[in-house]
Design brief:
Layout (H helix, E strand, L loop, with lengths): L4 E3 L6 E4 L3 E4 L5 E2 L4 E4 L2 E2 L8 E3 L6 E2 L3 E6 L3 E4 L3 E3 L12 E4 L1 E2 L6 E4 L4 E2 L4 E7 L5 E8 L5 E2 L20 E3 L12 E6 L3 E4 L3 E3 L12 E4 L1 E3 L7 E4 L5 E3 L3 E6 L3 E4 L3 E3 L12 E4 L1 E3 L6 E3 L5 E3 L3 E6 L3 E4 L3 E4 L5 E2 L4 E4 L2 H48 L1
Antiparallel strand pairs: 1-3, 2-5, 3-4, 6-8, 7-9, 9-11, 10-12, 13-15, 14-16, 16-17, 17-18, 19-20, 20-22, 21-23, 24-26, 25-27, 27-29, 28-30, 31-33, 32-34, 34-36, 35-38, 36-37
């Protein structure tokens, strides 16, 4: 009606273009005009970068969505830290890069001027060594893109030491009990159960008093989505990836039986504990039974099939005459037997029947004889009386 106000909204995945509210005018129009719903532009999942990753795990990325990148330990981000989904449905460029950085060296009788924990390729470090006469000698070296110093860092005393090896999250190293790390000393890293080691398992102290490589990273173990099974399905929360320890189960459709392990678990190696099971169609085999006749022909029958049984002539059914195929491939009730009728019992029955027939036959004949005799007596008597009366 005139002056009524309508409020508009769009379905999920569509954006409202125009005013959210509109009023009906007396001339039958809307002011402002009725808006439209246009499909929202989305970007594909953000690209991966070598030796780095982004922190956004969303499934959808609309226009304006921002993704932040960071590098793995021992690498430095070069370029823009973030990229944004543009109105054209593509990510802004260029993507950042992760280049190997140079680890700050351990200095014996000296120090690094302007010391950092990690240096970018192209950075120059100045090493100040203390000599026996208390004078100071300066050495400069530049960080290369492969994470090494050039020229090699100087030795400021006869015996160099490396600093304590870095600790890592969800992992440990073999040097926890050591206080001094001289050149050549190696340290082995390992991760907790459920985490995999990314990087160098072992690092060693170099002649320059620096560790040979950046420390590794312990990344949580993930298993890929388990394979599907024909005529069956997965039970539990479904996802593209599953963390270590996650457990799922399979089940079969009605009329099918599960062959194998129903439960699988994501192991520390990133694989599933068992191969997927199979769903086999349930069918019952009807055994060979002498003298039996079935209402439904065949040798195998699907789950739930009912069969009515009867015996051939000369056989007697022992058991129920209707059975059904069960989930465990058996028949319920059990398959009955057809027992051959006993010849002795048949002879006795036949003899009794014959005796009865003979008895009835004898009685009939006897009755007829008696009847004839009586009939002759009456006739003789009548004749006798007749003759007497005539005389």
């Amino acid at each position: 009606m005139p002056e009524d106000v309508a409020v508009f909204e769009c379905d999920f995945g569509y954006a409202l273009k125009g005013s959210q509210k509109s009023q009906c005018q007396f001339e039958g129009t809307w002011d402002p005009p009725v808006p439209t719903c246009e499909k929202m532009v989305k970007c594909r999942p953000p690209p991966s970068i070598i030796n780095g990753e982004h922190g956004n795990f969303s499934d959808t990325f609309g226009v304006g969505a921002i993704v932040h990148y960071h590098c793995k330990p021992g690498f430095i981000l070069i370029g823009n830290e973030s990229i944004q989904c543009t109105m054209h449905g593509v990510w802004s460029h260029p993507l950042p890069q992760c280049e190997a950085g140079c680890v700050s060296p351990g200095i014996g009788h000296g120090k690094a001027i302007g010391r950092e924990s990690l240096y970018m390729p192209g950075d120059i470090i100045t090493i100040e060594c203390n000599t026996d006469n208390s004078s100071k000698v300066l050495h400069k070296s530049q960080c290369r893109s492969e994470g090494t110093w050039f020229p090699p860092l100087p030795a400021c005393d006869g015996v160099l030491h490396c600093s304590k090896p870095p600790d890592i999250l969800h992992g440990s190293h073999s040097g926890l009990g050591k206080a001094v790390f001289t050149p050549g000393t190696s340290v082995n890293y390992s991760c907790e159960t459920g985490f995999s080691l990314i990087g160098m398992t072992s690092i060693y102290c170099t002649e320059s008093g620096a560790w040979s490589h950046p420390p590794p990273v312990c990344k949580v173990v993930k298993c890929l989505h388990p394979p599907a099974v024909t005529n069956g399905k997965l039970q539990g929360n479904t996802s593209d990836t599953y963390f270590y320890g996650a457990s799922l189960s399979y089940s079969c459709d009605s009329g099918y039986s599960l062959i194998g392990d129903a439960f699988i678990t994501c192991t520390a190696s990133g694989t599933w504990s068992h191969p997927p099971p199979q769903c086999k169609e349930i069918s019952c085999v009807f055994p060979e039974v002498q003298g039996v006749k079935k209402s439904t022909p065949g040798k195998t029958y699907r789950f739930g099939t009912n069969i009515t049984l009867e015996c051939d002539d000369g056989y007697t059914l022992e058991g129920l005459n209707q059975i059904q195929c069960q989930e465990d491939f058996s028949w319920d009730p059990p398959v009955p037997a057809c027992k051959l009728t006993s010849p002795r019992s048949g002879s006795v029955g036949l003899g009794i029947a014959a005796a009865v027939v003979l008895l009835l036959l004898g009685v009939t004949i006897g009755w007829k004889i008696i009847s004839k005799q009586k009939e002759g007596y009456y006739r003789t008597y009548e004749n006798y009386n007749y003759k007497t009366s005539l005389d």
